[in-house]
Design brief:
The complex is a heterodimer of chains A (67) and B (574). With 67 residues, chain A is mainly alpha-helical. Chain A is 69% helix and 0% strand. Chain A is built from 2 helices and no strands. Chain A has helices spanning 6-26, 42-66. Chain B is mostly helical and 574 residues long. Chain B has 2 domains: 9-19 and 44-420 and 543-572, Sodium/glucose cotransporter (Up-down Bundle); 422-542, no CATH class. In chain B, 71% of the residues lie in helices and 2% in strands. Chain B has helices at residues 9-29, 36-41, 48-59, 62-75, 81-85, 88-104, 110-117, 120-153, 157-205, 208-222, 249-267, 269-276, 281-313, 333-341, 346-382, 389-420, 424-448, 454-474, 498-523, 555-572; strands spanning 323-324, 327-328, 475-477, 493-495. In chain B, the strands form 2 sheets. Chain B has a two-stranded antiparallel ribbon. Chain B has a two-stranded parallel sheet with strand order 3-4. In chain B, a hairpin with a 2-residue loop joins strand 1 (323-324) and strand 2 (327-328). The longest helix of chain B is centred in the N-terminal third of the chain and has 49 residues, at 157-205. Classes of the chains: A mainly alpha (67), B mainly alpha (574). The interface between A and B is medium-sized, with 29 and 37 residues.
């Protein structure tokens, strides 16, 4: 079946990563909001993590296509 | 206690993006759905790693996630027995010894394997039971999802139910089994990444693993167990009273490690279907093994936070509670952990992870149902193949699609039924466990003993089921208040906990089924000739040594790696 699932996975995590990390940046000074997550900006961390994961998936999907 | 979440715009955006993607995957696959085989069997074209992740994702339904986190709080690390003993050995066995026959026999479903190996009546019995159970299971998860959306998000119950039904129907109708499988892979990653922050934050708060052990000690001692019971797995299983599961090591090994887990992993078509959709026999054998690798580590994702939740519950300053109307509701553990730790942003991701796990469970049920309905019920009893391949293909594709709609509609009805009778869920779960154990006995004997006959298998299945019912009717777990929990005939034995009762129900059912099948096989006439059993029975099938070049693609090598890691994990957490 002609669908490389890495492309949608890569795309969705890149989008999630962008939304959440940017939101994390904007709310970085909001100490009240991050009191829940033990004063860690969990949005920024998870956002960047997902961005890296998403880009990796897209990169591998692209590489496979060129082979 | 307030369990309502305050979701922000960001949270809803994440959820919306997820809905667009699941439907988009179905949409992208719709053009490949040209015949029944493409729709119902994914054209046997799925790469091993995709099938493997889907294999594990189908099982990682929301009831599993919520249940296992709750069990983490209830039983501590002993819950890992459901993984390291209760899943991995069965998955290895399925991959190495059973997959060659499921895949190699060209059967399109587990009931069809029974037809090829035994006879029509054995297939019919299994197909009808499976179809009914699957739809009810799908209805139950739909009900649970809608209830969750109502209590946690404040959404309208009926609207939530319809919305989830329409999305699942949308992508399974468009892309069939392929769409369900590809979405399960996506859902797998979302579940893992979405729950990751809870693991990290909860462990950080209690000071890591050693901090967790330290904080648990007084709580566990107060319950009357040794201080490290909840952070060990086998250590206190010498005596049923010394551990919260209420089962000794041999009960765990035989009940969970053998009967229940082999019954579930090796015969449940919902699971096996993922491996049967793989692109080659080697890929089909690798599927459960690739799935086993993440499966071994899922306890860290869902059980460990549950264990931490036990510490939080006993610390009033944390503000954490799972009390509803003065009673603990352990199913809420994961929900309350999300609420406890996640701010807007990752909260949306966590909720999406839960939604994803609900949907993967439901879509799995629907896609297994439509295959069994189309091939094993409709094609065998209502309209057999006419011989005109092209017309047949078209016809069964249409039937498969209609069965998908039908399946979802009946699921909705089942969801409302579940809402009317709260106990129906417990009741059905009990029934499910009664059907799988005898089925495993019959399939196992059929695959590895050529003498097993159809009459014996059919009777064995029924006898096993009846004994399971009888055992359930004669025993109760301590403190049972409803007849759904057992004892509806009369109470002969009382088990310390429900888990112990379930284990022994399965052990009795399996033993009866095996004994009846063996005895009847010896006294009934063998109808199938040796030639007919080629490809279906171990001793009748010539070993074909497929040479696989890369070592990491060889099932035996993969199985050994999985086995070794599993043993190491068990020793570390002994």
């Amino acid at each position: 079946m002609g669908l490389d699932i890495r492309i949608p996975i890569g795309l969705i995590f890149t989008i999630f990563g962008l939304i959440i990390s940017i939101y994390g940046l904007f709310t970085n000074s909001n100490t009240e909001m991050y009191a829940k997550s033990l004063s860690i900006n969990i949005n920024l961390i998870m956002g960047l993590l997902m961005l890296v994961f998403g880009t990796f998936m897209l990169f591998f999907a692209r590489k496979k296509k060129q082979d | 206690m307030d369990i309502k979440f305050d979701l922000g715009l960001v949270d809803y955006t994440i959820m919306g993006v997820y809905f667009v993607f699941v439907l988009g995957i179905g949409w992208a696959l719709r053009k490949y759905m040209k015949n029944a085989s493409a729709f119902l069997e994914a054209g046997r074209s799925i790469p091993a790693w995709v099938a493997g992740l889907a294999f594990i994702s189908t099982n990682l339904g929301a009831l599993e996630v919520m249940g296992m986190t709750g069990s983490g709080a209830k039983y501590g690390m002993l819950t890992t027995h459901f993984y390291w003993v209760g899943a991995i050995p069965a998955m290895i066995f399925l991959a190495l010894f059973m997959m060659p026959f499921y895949y190699g026999s060209k059967a399109r479903s587990v009931p069809e394997y029974l037809k090829l190996r035994y006879d029509e009546k054995t297939r019919g019995l299994n197909a009808i039971l499976f179809a009914v159970m699957t739809i009810l299971a799908s209805g139950i998860s739909m009900y649970a999802l809608a209830l969750l959306m109502e209590t946690v998000l404040g959404w309208n119950f009926h609207l939530s139910l319809m919305l989830s039904a329409i999305i699942v129907l949308g992508y399974t109708y468009l892309g069939g089994l392929s769409s369900a499988i590809y979405n399960e892979v996506l859902q797998f990653f979302i579940i893992v990444i979405g729950l990751l922050p809870i693991v990290f934050l909860s462990l950080k708060q209690v000071g890591g693993w050693s901090g967790l052990e330290h904080s648990l000690a007084p709580i566990v001692s107060a319950k009357g167990y040794a201080a490290d019971t909840f952070t060990s797995t086998w250590k206190y299983t010498g005596n049923a009273k010394a551990n919260p599961l209420g089962v000794e090591w041999y009960g765990i090994a035989a009940g969970l490690g053998f009967v229940l887990s082999f019954g579930y992993w090796c015969t449940n078509f919902l699971i096996v279907q993922r491996a049967m959709a793989a692109e080659s026999i080697n890929a089909a054998r690798k599927t459960p093994l690739i799935g086993a690798i993440p499966k071994m580590f899922i306890p860290f994702l869902i059980i460990v936070p549950g264990v931490v939740a036990l510490v939080l519950m006993n610390d009033p300053s944390s503000g954490f509670s799972i009390m509803v109307n003065g009673k603990e509701n352990y199913d809420l553990t994961i929900i309350m952990l999300l609420k406890q730790y996640l701010p807007t942003g990752v909260l949306g991701l966590g909720i999406t992870a839960l939604l994803a796990s609900f949907m993967s469970g439901m879509a799995g049920n629907v896609s297994a149902f439509n295959t069994v309905w189309t091939y094993d019920i409709y094609q065998s009893y209502i309209r057999p193949v006419t011989g005109n391949k092209e017309a047949d293909d078209k016809h069964y594709l249409k039937v498969g699609r209609l069965a998908t709609i039908f399946g979802v509609v009946v699921s909705i009805a089942a969801a409302y039924l579940a809402g009317l009778f709260g106990n129906i869920m417990d009741f059905l779960q009990t029934i499910f466990s009664m059907i799988n154990a005898p089925l495993f006995a019959v399939i196992f004997l059929g695959m590895f003993w050529k003498r097993t006959t159809g009459h014996a298998a059919f009777t064995g299945l029924l006898a096993g089921f009846l004994v399971a019912l009888l055992h359930h009717g004669l025993t109760v777990p301590e403190g049972a208040t409803t007849l759904v929990k057992g004892g509806w005939i009369g109470v002969v034995h009382t088990y310390p906990v429900e888990m112990a009762q379930n284990f022994w129900t399965a052990i009795f059912a399996f033993t009866t089924s095996s004994v009846v099948t063996v005895i009847l096989s010896l006294i009934t006439k063998k109808i199938k000739s040796d030639e007919e059993l080629v490809g279906l029975v171990y001793s009748m099938t010539p070993r074909t040594n497929v040479v696989v070049k890369e070592w990491y693609n060889r099932p035996v090598v993969l199985a050994s790696i999985v086995g070794v890691i599993c043993v190491i994990l068990s020793i570390i957490f002994w």
